[in-house]
Design brief:
4-stranded parallel β-sheet; 313 residues; alpha/beta; 47% helix; Rossmann fold; heme biosynthesis; Ferrochelatase_C; Coproporphyrin III ferrochelatase; 2 domains; 8 strands; iron
Length: 313
Amino acid sequence: MADPKIGVLVMSYGTPESMDGIAEYYTHIRRGHAPTPEQLAELTARYEAVVGGVFPLRENTNRQADGLQAALDAAAPGRYAVYQGLKHARPYIEDGVAAMAENGVKQAVGIVLAPHFSTMSVGSYMQRAREEAEAKGIAFEAVESYHLHPKLIEALVKRVKDAYAELEAKTGGEGPLKVLFSAHSLPARIREIGDPYEEQLLATSASVAEGAGTPDWAFTWQSAGRTREPWLGPDILETLKETAEAGYKGVLSAPIGFVSEHLEVLYDLDIEARAEAKALGIRLVRIDMLGTDPLYMETLADCVEQASRGAFI
């Protein structure tokens, strides 16, 4: 008997489940090309520095999927069933769609744990999900972005306010202080095709800064890939140097392009950027990530409901 529920495919980038899975994970990111021993050693060292051989990062996504299921159950009991699909780790996006098909799901909504749309990120997730759904006879509706959802902005405003107060305390009232919003860099060629990623990130940043009462802010990039083509910049390490040279005493790091703690936050910001700030003689405080914040879970649930009402209800 077919399951009457609407399937919800929650997608994210994915992380290895353990240190033993890093090579397979890195090979998948590189489209089947195994990393060199040097590349593998560098990535392994980063994970060792962050997790010390214990790997809790996958749990973040699991908790968010469970949180979304709870939020949907509260809003519409029995209507939705949440499945996971990861871009570079098991269960892959195709696995999530296959699981829905096995349970008789005929209608599905896809949403990514990333508020901002790019053809190279969210767009690629949705393409894979839609193609697999069509092959399995599942009608598929996509939530492409939610970067200005009021509850998302409210959650981020609270985090910026709290962290800014912490930064003020740590600098002893000595200023000035600057908020640096950031997100994962992408190849600069996205600007040539009118990709909305950068514009959406700036819109979120402006809205959060206004709500938090922190008008002295800038947007910067982080975690650029190491390829021959140019990536969007400047990188946060460059921006930190410019900020220190301009006389700032403290920086609030607000990585609004991410929704949970993983390598780009725990290593690139908490280790690399923090070390750079210390060397420059400025304080750096990072906002707490959204994780399973009820406002974020409600944001996702609201977007799923809106998408399903327009398509299936």
